[in-house]
Amino acid sequence: MSKRKLSRQQRWRIEKVQAERARRADRRDSRDGEKLAAGEYGPEQGGRVIAHFGRTLDVRPDQDGETVRCHLRANLEGLVTGDRVIWRAAHDASDGVVVARGERDNVLERPDARGQLKPVAANIDQILIVFAVEPAPHANLIDRYLVAAEATGIAPVLVLNKVDLLPAHGGELRDLLGRYEGLGYPVVTTTIEREGGLSALHARLAGRTSVFVGQSGVGKSSLIDRLLPDEELRIGALSKDTRKGTHTTTTARLYALPSPASGETSEGELIDSPGIREFGLGHLDEEQVTEGFIEFRDFLGHCRFRDCRHRHEPGCALLAAVERGDIHPERFASYRRILESLGEA
Ligand SMILES: Nc1nc2c(ncn2[C@@H]2O[C@H](COP(=O)(O)OP(=O)(O)OP(=O)(O)O)[C@@H](O)[C@H]2O)c(=O)[nH]1
Ligand SMILES: [Mg+2]
Ligand SMILES: [Zn+2]
């Protein structure tokens, strides 16, 4: 697709807007600087980013206390939900300023519509890949998430939601699930429509930070809403015409999962994230994609040619494994589709 050409006038207008934004940010930073210098902020303390909105963040203090809306120092870019930060609270408690980012254990990233890599959430223990009976999943999207999870080294769990809508025999979706279970991925089924419909999921959340990802409308926010009696999340009905989600959640947000016993101490953390249309993998190379298909690993390095690219080469161990049924043809087709989308086909 060719890039849309901007007229000179449009470009001029955009530059003017950007210059004005930079000027405003400078003014804000110098205001923050003045406030800092004037001692209007208290001592440095630890916190966690709960949500981010462009130039401001919600930070939860490590010590008890309410979430505080914080500004950023000019040199701090790319903070994301789940980040550990050092921040200072204003003496009048109106706001705060984040002064540094802590070390990250890991970060889940994905390219935006323009192909630029954007962090989704940091310091995560597991990725819950949510899909649903409706809107129906396409396996390629699940494979994309799995490849991304394997590349970041964060453990994935597949969650099939809305099983109340599943026909009695389960049909194709049961087959699909079975395929992933056979690969060794944990799979749980859920529904918010039945008593106890979340117990299998709940059992996997204790003591961990879990990020919920998946297409719009599969029920990520509904599940979290149900798991947290004290929170009310925004939930959106599917579009009447297309039966797809309507992109209700707009920013990733972290919630504490209370322990059922005390209701006070946090038993885990849940991060809701905005639904996506396409999970681009443009940030990965061919080798990372290949290794993201975990059942290929047994066969890699066994092709006749060392530089085999597993297309039509004689003596290709992957193609032979597909032939024998050791690699599912759908997974192999999915692999090829991903490489095609990266322009590596
Ligand atoms: N039948 C049924 N409907 C469900 C279930 N879970 C969620 N829904 C419905 O699915 C629709 C979408 O739910 P959301 O929780 O907003 O979906 P989401 O994944 O957060 O969507 P985005 O924020 O747009 O990414 C709502 O109409 C929910 O009521 C379920 O277990 N069964
Ligand atoms: Mg949502
Ligand atoms: Zn090969």
Automatic annotation (TrEMBL):
<feature type="compositionally biased region" description="Basic and acidic residues">
    <location>
        <begin position="12"/>
        <end position="37"/>
    </location>
</feature>
<dbReference type="InterPro" id="IPR004881">
    <property type="entry name" value="Ribosome_biogen_GTPase_RsgA"/>
</dbReference>
<comment type="similarity">
    <text>Belongs to the TRAFAC class YlqF/YawG GTPase family. RsgA subfamily.</text>
</comment>
<feature type="binding site">
    <location>
        <position position="316"/>
    </location>
    <ligand>
        <name>Zn(2+)</name>
    </ligand>
</feature>
<keyword id="KW-0547">Nucleotide-binding</keyword>
<feature type="region of interest" description="Disordered">
    <location>
        <begin position="1"/>
        <end position="42"/>
    </location>
</feature>
<comment type="subunit">
    <text>Monomer. Associates with 30S ribosomal subunit, binds 16S rRNA.</text>
</comment>
<dbReference type="InterPro" id="IPR010914">
    <property type="entry name" value="RsgA_GTPase_dom"/>
</dbReference>
<dbReference type="Pfam" id="PF03193">
    <property type="entry name" value="RsgA_GTPase"/>
</dbReference>
<keyword id="KW-0342">GTP-binding</keyword>
<feature type="binding site">
    <location>
        <position position="310"/>
    </location>
    <ligand>
        <name>Zn(2+)</name>
    </ligand>
</feature>
<keyword id="KW-0862">Zinc</keyword>
<comment type="function">
    <text>One of several proteins that assist in the late maturation steps of the functional core of the 30S ribosomal subunit. Helps release RbfA from mature subunits. May play a role in the assembly of ribosomal proteins into the subunit. Circularly permuted GTPase that catalyzes slow GTP hydrolysis, GTPase activity is stimulated by the 30S ribosomal subunit.</text>
</comment>
<feature type="compositionally biased region" description="Basic residues">
    <location>
        <begin position="1"/>
        <end position="11"/>
    </location>
</feature>
<protein>
    <recommendedName>
        <fullName>Small ribosomal subunit biogenesis GTPase RsgA</fullName>
        <ecNumber>3.6.1.-</ecNumber>
    </recommendedName>
</protein>
<keyword id="KW-0963">Cytoplasm</keyword>
<keyword id="KW-0694">RNA-binding</keyword>
<feature type="domain" description="CP-type G">
    <location>
        <begin position="114"/>
        <end position="279"/>
    </location>
</feature>
<dbReference type="InterPro" id="IPR030378">
    <property type="entry name" value="G_CP_dom"/>
</dbReference>
<feature type="binding site">
    <location>
        <begin position="161"/>
        <end position="164"/>
    </location>
    <ligand>
        <name>GTP</name>
    </ligand>
</feature>
<dbReference type="GO" id="GO:0042274">
    <property type="term" value="P:ribosomal small subunit biogenesis"/>
</dbReference>
<keyword id="KW-0699">rRNA-binding</keyword>
<dbReference type="GO" id="GO:0005525">
    <property type="term" value="F:GTP binding"/>
</dbReference>
<keyword id="KW-0378">Hydrolase</keyword>
<dbReference type="GO" id="GO:0046872">
    <property type="term" value="F:metal ion binding"/>
</dbReference>
<dbReference type="GO" id="GO:0019843">
    <property type="term" value="F:rRNA binding"/>
</dbReference>
<dbReference type="GO" id="GO:0003924">
    <property type="term" value="F:GTPase activity"/>
</dbReference>
<keyword id="KW-0479">Metal-binding</keyword>
<dbReference type="InterPro" id="IPR027417">
    <property type="entry name" value="P-loop_NTPase"/>
</dbReference>
<keyword id="KW-0690">Ribosome biogenesis</keyword>
<feature type="binding site">
    <location>
        <position position="303"/>
    </location>
    <ligand>
        <name>Zn(2+)</name>
    </ligand>
</feature>
<dbReference type="GO" id="GO:0005737">
    <property type="term" value="C:cytoplasm"/>
</dbReference>
<dbReference type="InterPro" id="IPR012340">
    <property type="entry name" value="NA-bd_OB-fold"/>
</dbReference>
<feature type="domain" description="EngC GTPase">
    <location>
        <begin position="122"/>
        <end position="277"/>
    </location>
</feature>
<feature type="binding site">
    <location>
        <begin position="214"/>
        <end position="222"/>
    </location>
    <ligand>
        <name>GTP</name>
    </ligand>
</feature>
<feature type="binding site">
    <location>
        <position position="308"/>
    </location>
    <ligand>
        <name>Zn(2+)</name>
    </ligand>
</feature>
